[in-house]
Amino acid sequence: MPPTATLEDIKAYQQKVEKDKITPDNLPPCPRCSVESMFFKIHAYRERRFLIIIEMLIKAAYCSLVRFKCPGCGKTFTDYPDFAIPHKHYTRPSITGFSASYVESEDMTYQQAVIVDRSAPGYPQNDGTLAPSTIHRWITTLGRFTQTCRTALILLLQENPGSSICRDLARLIIPQRKYKTNQRKKQLTGCRQLVIIEAFFQATFKTSIFTKLATRFAFS
Ligand SMILES: [Zn+2]
Known about the structure:
It is a single chain. The protein is α+β, with helices and mostly antiparallel strands. The protein has helices at about 5-20, 90-105, 110-115, 130-140, 145-160, 165-170, 180-205, 215, and strands at about 40-55, 55-70, 75-80. The protein has a 3-stranded antiparallel β-sheet, covered by helices on one side. It is globular and about 50 Å long. Zinc ion binds near residues 30, 33 and 72.
């Protein structure tokens, strides 16, 4: 089974939107004028297309996202459900799942990284499949969550000072044939750290770093 959010996840968020259950509380304060997010007002609803994988087929599912507006300066902010990553159509479980299997393997190629049970998830309309270059881009994105990861690590160590997480992070090695530049090495390392931190975070706090932390740090 390929990793993906489900249609039920998306419908559940849509219901929360319709019942006015989405609050701005997890958003960071306005970066322009420092107004706290709890004072933000609902500005607009925008329909957003997501790609989920159902029985190896890539299908579109739609859901409204809520935009809030800062009353101080008028800047707008989107609240993202925890299955979404800004500017990505695939859902967070797909993005982290496929990326994790690539970064955690010693010798996997990007071509192999899209394969689940001997085939790649495909589009029902044509012969297209999930592209190896998409996984490459997802890793770039996940390698940038520096503030989220740093704070998650602090919370984990506060909760469990004896945790093996620092040893696990220190032991992490990216095989040399996976990168040609130092920048790529950094992205791969950042992504792999995120995968490790997320697993510890889920096990310790029973929630994902994407549920609140990533939003609080504006996905950085
Ligand atoms: Zn503002």
